[in-house]
C-alpha cells in the first residue's frame, strides 16, 4: 500500500480511507510531509475540515524537538516550499493530540544512550547546513517514498535508542488513541482524520488491520511538491 508516491515529476501523498465491515466509523489517513508547497497544505486542510474528529501530532517545543526538526525547517528557504502549518486548532472540529508530553519527551531522551545523543547533536546541525547550501527538491524526493513496509527500512537509519524515541513510542501513543476512538465511537458515522508524519502511517495501517480488521477502501493522491 502506497503512502507517499515519488516519481520524476512529483512527490504525492496518498490520502486513504480505512473502513471495516459492520461499523460506520472510518479513519482518513493524511500522511504528512513537513515541507511542501503551500497549495499542498491548503488542500490537506480543506479535506481535514470535512472530517468530524482530528487526531494530530504535536510535540512540545524543546531543545530536543528543535534538533529533530532542524533539517526540514531549513528547507523553507528553498523556492516555493513552506514548513507545515495547518492551524488545526482554528478548525471547529474536536482535536485529539496523543503525542508525547514535555515530561514524556524528557524522560525518553534520558533513556537514549549518551553516545547517540552526542551523535545527534553533532551531526544534525551539519546536515541542516548541507541541506541549506546544496539541498534541492530532488534531494528531498529521494528520501520521501513510504509504503506500509517502510518502517522496517527506516529503523537502521537512526542511532541506537533514537528509533524508540522518534518512532516507536509515538506510534504506540497514536495507535492507542485510535483504538480508544474505535472502542468508544465505532457505532457513529464519523470520519476521523489522522494527521501524522508519513513515517508513522505504516504502524497505523498495520495496527488497525490487525486489531479491528479495518482495510483501505479508497485512496486519492495529493501533490506535496513538483520536481
From TrEMBL:
Protein's UniProt keywords contain Membrane: yes
Keywords tagged on the record: Membrane, Transmembrane, Transmembrane helix
Domain of life: Bacteria
Bilayer-spanning residue ranges: 114-133
Protein name listed in UniProt: TraB/GumN family protein
Organism listed in the record: Amycolatopsis suaedae
The organism's taxonomic lineage, starting at the top: Bacteria, Bacillati, Actinomycetota, Actinomycetes, Pseudonocardiales
Amino acid at each position: 500500500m502506497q503512502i507517499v508516491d515519488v516519481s520524476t515529476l512529483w512527490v504525492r501523498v496518498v490520502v486513504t480511507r480505512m473502513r471495516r465491515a459492520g461499523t460506520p466509523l472510518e479513519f482518513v489517513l493524511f500522511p504528512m510531509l513537513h515541507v511542501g508547497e503551500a497549495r499542498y497544505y491548503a488542500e490537506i486542510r480543506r479535506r481535514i475540515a470535512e472530517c468530524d474528529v482530528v487526531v494530530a501530532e504535536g510535540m512540545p517545543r524543546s531543545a530536543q524537538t528543535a534538533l529533530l526538526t532542524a533539517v526540514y525547517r531549513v528547507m523553507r528557504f528553498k523556492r516555493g516550499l513552506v514548513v507545515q502549518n495547518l492551524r488545526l486548532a482554528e478548525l471547529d472540529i474536536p482535536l485529539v493530540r496523543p503525542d508525547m508530553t514535555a515530561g514524556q519527551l524528557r524522560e525518553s531522551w534520558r533513556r537514549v544512550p549518551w553516545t547517540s545523543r552526542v551523535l545527534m547533536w553533532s551531526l544534525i546541525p551539519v546536515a541542516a547546513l548541507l541541506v541549506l547550501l546544496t539541498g534541492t527538491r530532488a534531494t528531498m524526493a529521494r528520501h520521501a517514498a513510504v509504503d506500509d513496509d517502510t518502517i522496517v527500512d527506516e529503523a537502521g537509519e537512526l542511532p541506537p535508542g533514537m528509533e524508540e524515541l522518534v518512532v516507536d513510542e509515538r506510534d504506540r501513543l497514536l495507535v492507542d488513541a485510535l483504538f480508544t476512538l474505535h472502542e468508544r465511537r465505532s457505532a457513529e458515522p464519523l470520519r476521523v482524520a489522522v494527521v501524522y508524519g508519513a513515517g508513522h502511517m505504516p504502524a497505523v495501517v498495520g495496527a488497525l488491520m490487525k486489531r479491528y480488521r479495518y482495510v483501505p477502501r479508497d485512496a486519492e493522491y495529493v501533490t506535496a511538491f513538483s520536481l
